[in-house]
Amino acid sequence: MAQCTAPSRGHRSSAAAANCPACGGRGRYYGSGYGYSSGYRSSGISYSSGGGRSSGGARPRWSRPGSSVSYTAAQVLSLTPIRETIEAKAATQPDLRDCFLCHAWDDRQGMAKQLHDLLEAAGVKVWFSEKDLGLGVPMMRAIDKGLANSRIGLVLVTPAFLAKLGKESVSEKELSALLAGNQLVPIVHGTTYTALREVSPLLASRSGLDTAEESMSAIAEKIAELVTITATA
Q1: Distance between CA 68 and CA 36 in Å, rounded?
Q2: Top-level CATH class of 6-227?
Q3: Which phi-psi region, left, alpha or beta, contains residue 113 (left: φ > 0; alpha: ψ -120 to 50)?
Q4: Choice between 142 and 224, residue whose per-residue pLDDT is larger
Q5: Cα–Cα 20 to 30 A to 31, which of 8, 68, 132, 203?
């Protein structure tokens, strides 16, 4: 009988479950300690068992009315604690920026800038080193200030980022601060969670978003919706 791979690998998405010899995209999904089955309902979040990449189109409570942004149920479960952190900080510190973008230095003019520009275009207030690190300002002091003045952190996980982890790099210091609570969303690009797990099991334990499954534009839309606070949030 085929064995489910969730206990060892996790089902972070519909694609991961589809590759499982036991589940084949039809059963339960697991990721970072969360799981669901068809028709499961928790914390006001409903899930359906329809097909497609969106695993039935789970709809989070922060989804805007009429929104066309589609989530998997695993994404809703992993992003819900992040949303709770955003709401708590928005209530007590309304002037904070929406997010801090943590990335490898080598990505600053490439994918990190692309993600920053997409988020800014969607109305997200982002702390980004290329824009916010002024000339003559000590880097670590500026980064500490950026972290303290942002509600959550986004970690762009690329091959360049993985190469820097474990080498006392600036990105590693940022990462340590972001891992302290439910304020971290990994965004994997050009690599895999398996590769990340080999370098940082703790970061890999946090379910996030992956450009292997959806475009960076779609990811930016999800982040924008996640961080938006309205009067009815």
Answers
A1: 23
A2: alpha beta
A3: alpha
A4: 224
A5: 68
